[in-house]
């Protein structure tokens, strides 16, 4: 099990953000970049739902799949949708993702009982 680099994780995050933003634009008609707080919240909502469901059920998102990353619990399985939504909501706040322990696990991963590995 290899711990992925921070650069790989950030690139996966940017891909996932782009997918969520494009989904929000296509399905709701919000503009990108968002023109107001309401449009921004719609995009963040899409991000939390998309990433939460994919991570919870599959263990990876589109960005993580492209970059060979997976989110898993200590047993090596997907963390489930409720924990993945918690993880993603905390990730959206940014600070919990920046504060890391010696194993390069952010507070959002610790709170959700998750770890990110390179596959």
UniProtKB/TrEMBL annotation:
Membrane topology: Multi-pass membrane protein
Cellular location(s): Cell membrane
The protein, known as: RDD family membrane protein YckC
A Pfam family: RDD
Main location: membrane
UniProt keyword terms in alphabetical order: Cell membrane, Membrane, Transmembrane, Transmembrane helix
Annotated transmembrane regions: 12-30, 42-63
């Amino acid at each position: 099990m290899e711990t992925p680099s921070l650069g790989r994780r950030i690139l996966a995050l940017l891909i996932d953000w782009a997918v969520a933003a494009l989904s929000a634009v296509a399905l709701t008609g919000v503009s990108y970049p968002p023109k107001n707080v309401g449009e921004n919240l719609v995009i963040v909502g899409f991000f939390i739902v998309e990433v939460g469901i994919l991570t919870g059920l599959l263990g990876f998102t589109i960005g993580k799949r492209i970059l060979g990353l997976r989110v898993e619990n200590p047993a090596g399985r997907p963390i489930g949708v409720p924990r993945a939504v918690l993880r993603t909501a905390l990730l959206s706040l940014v600070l919990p993702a920046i504060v890391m322990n010696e194993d390069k696990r952010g507070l959002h991963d610790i709170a959700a009982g998750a770890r990110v590995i390179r596959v």
